[in-house]
Amino acid sequence: MKQFYDFKIEKIKNLSSKDKNLRKKNLEVFNKNGFPNKKDEDWKFTDLNKILSQNFKNIVNKDFSLKNKKLELIKEFEHNYISLLNGKLISSNFSYEEKNKISLENYNYNNKIIFDKKNSLNFLNDALATGGFSLEISKNYKLNKPLVIYNHFSNSLKETIVNYKNLIILNENSKLNLINYVNESIQENFMVNTIENIKIKKNSSLSNIFINNSKCNGYFYKYIQSNLEKNSNFENYLFSSGLKFNKIDIVVNFNEEHSKSSIFSALNLNNNEHQEIKTRINHNSPHCQSFQKIKDVLSDESKGVYQGKIFVKNNAQKTDAYQLSRALILDGNAEFDAKPELEIYADDVKCSHGSTSGSIDLNSIHYLKTRGIPEKEAYKMLINGFLIETLEKLAEGKLKNFLIKKLERQINGY
Amino acid sequence: MLHIKNLEATIDKKHILKGLNLSIKPGEVHAIMGPNGSGKSTLANVLSGKTGYETKGQIQYNGESLNDLSTEERAQKGIFLAFQYPLEIPGVNTNIFLRTSLNSVLKAKGEKELDTLTFLKLIKEKAAELGIDEKFLSRQLNVGFSGGEKKKNEILQMKLLQPKLSILDETDSGLDIDALRIVADGVNSYKNTENAFLIITHYQRLLDYIKPDYVHVLSNGKIVKTGSADLGMQLEKTGYKNLI
């Protein structure tokens, strides 16, 4: 296969020679393995190498200079924000909060990030990453308003890869609602490769929402490694429809007792869009609960993949783990692949999983049509009903209404 | 209003309706009775435009051939089917469904669609008439509703859409006596000289509450006997066997 990428550490400015050498080693590891393909169990259903080779001529890395970008703020609900351009922090606003309770800085590359040593994209990130942020919430501080991360990408990203790292720390007894928002309609192909480490300390709660407002030709991969202390809560809502390719790879480590984690996803994919959710929930401690509900609606030649693993260590008694994936397949050429996995070494646990895929219920369509509702509208109602259910557990309010509207927009088309 | 001539219907190679004739005029209430498997529900499905049936013969509705109309167009032109088994639709809020339905019909008629507030006021009134708790309207459509609640919801939809021809398919099945009375009152209060009803039922019971002008007996895909309301009562005593 023809080489379709060319990455150079030299393009990154201001590196110490030690840093340069480390990065070179990481790049060597990547170059040896290349982009993942189906031989890799974590990419069982997807040959990323092939997909990229068919869509890119020569992917390169660049050193991005900081530019200001005019922000188009979400008006539907009051919020704090961080704005990133090509992964670099360009502005932030915490006007609803006590300033000294929140620390936000550029990501400090002297810190060691935790990543998967079998993951070649992680190595690529560790070789090339430049941007990203570190966000830390003080002990006993619960943010008054949600925090939106505006992810902007410039038009000059054609055939370029963006790599960055984020670190998010919630100290004891703190609370944060985070919304990862992409509102770009870039037609050129580009890649974004992110590693994020999340630490949720005792009695703290993080809600992490991914929502997109447009379609763009980005190929996104995000690896999230989260570590939860006692009595903490980590919720994820993945509504990332609209990207050409997206894989969200979440690791949840229950390191102490009585914590909870949930992952809800609702995706409506069409054309040849491709989205994957990979989860690994490590129940390393007793009395923790994990819940996953993944829903995909697939049209045209789109593809949805869910690889969900629940691991229960021998001491993690009273674990309560649940996972369900459901797909509605609207066209013969669309595809859904699911690989649910349970690996359990404790004997007093409650674990269940299920996966279904099928077509839309034509009797339900008929019922709606007998009420004068046009067929197209009837399909939309059923799709919407199917997906919206993933929002059931979210508290009522402006944010939820905003998400419902955005989901409807994703279903109705842009 | 409705003229059915020599209607035949086949599904999955099963020939179900075998030359059915029926005429309904505005203001009339017709009942179709018949044993299981005689084709009652098939008739309802075919009239509603359900796909999957191969049909022959003519169905004229207000001078227009129904064959050319889609299900939603039939509904927009005033044909309403109350289902024997109303479908549960998860994730679809009942109120939003009802408003979408009403506005689709209004839009097709070229009338002004209702805004949320006007709609809520209207639906509140209609629900109260049928003794439907408002809370039902904010629930998912028919999900977890009892048999009686589902049927009341069908009648609510009928009263909301104000159809010209209402087809009630086994609306009495699964109803207790109180729910039956409410459903029948709903129908009787909506009945006028402009609209018509086709009541499909297995038993006479519903006809004690909704008085039909004509009773037809359907057997083996054809109407084999037509009479007045007395025919229903006679059937209740003697059963279908003696007639067929």
Topology (elements, then pairings):
The complex is a heterodimer of chains A (414) and B (244).
Chain A: E1 5-6, H1 17-33, H2 48-55, E2 59-61, E3 80-85, E4 88-93, E5 102-106, H3 120-128, E6 133-137, E7 147-152, E8 160-170, E9 175-182, E10 190-200, E11 205-212, E12 216-228, E13 233-239, E14 243-254, E15 260-269, E16 274-283, E17 289-298, E18 303-312, E19 320-329, E20 335-344, E21 350-358, H4 362-369, H5 375-388, H6 398-412
Parallel strand pairs in A: 1-2, 2-8, 3-7, 6-8, 7-9, 8-10, 9-11, 10-12, 11-13, 12-14, 13-15, 14-16, 15-17, 16-18, 17-19, 18-20, 19-21
Antiparallel strand pairs in A: 3-4, 5-6
Chain B: E1 2-11, E2 14-24, E3 29-33, H1 40-48, E4 54-61, E5 64-65, H2 71-76, E6 79-82, H3 94-108, H4 116-129, H5 134-137, H6 147-161, E7 165-169, H7 177-190, E8 196-201, E9 214-219, E10 222-227, H8 229-238
Parallel strand pairs in B: 3-8, 3-9, 6-7, 7-8
Antiparallel strand pairs in B: 1-2, 1-4, 4-5, 9-10
Structure commentary:
The complex is a heterodimer of chains A (414) and B (244). Chain A is an alpha/beta fold and 414 residues long. Chain A folds into 2 domains: 65-359, no CATH class; 360-414, no CATH class. Helices cover 17% and strands 42% of the residues of chain A. Chain A has helices at 17-33, 48-55, 120-128, 362-369, 375-388, 398-412, and strands at 5-6, 59-61, 80-85, 88-93, 102-106, 133-137, 147-152, 160-170, 175-182, 190-200, 205-212, 216-228, 233-239, 243-254, 260-269, 274-283, 289-298, 303-312, 320-329, 335-344, 350-358. In chain A, the strands form 2 sheets. In chain A, strands 1, 2, 5, 6, 8, 10, 12, 14, 16, 18 and 20 form an 11-stranded mixed sheet that branches. A 10-stranded mixed sheet of chain A has the order 4-3-7-9-11-13-15-17-19-21, with helices on one face. In chain A, α4 (362-369) crosses α5 (375-388) and α5 (375-388) crosses α6 (398-412). Chain A is globular. Chain A starts with a strand and ends with a helix. By secondary structure, chain B is an alpha/beta fold. Chain B has one domain: 3-Layer(aba) Sandwich (Rossmann fold). In chain B, the strands form 2 sheets. Chain B has a 6-stranded mixed sheet, with helices on both faces. A 4-stranded antiparallel sheet of chain B has the order 2-1-4-5, covered by helices on one side. Chain B is globular, with a radius of gyration of 18 Å. The mean pLDDT of chain B is 92. Chains A and B meet through α4 and α5 of A and α2 and α3 of B.
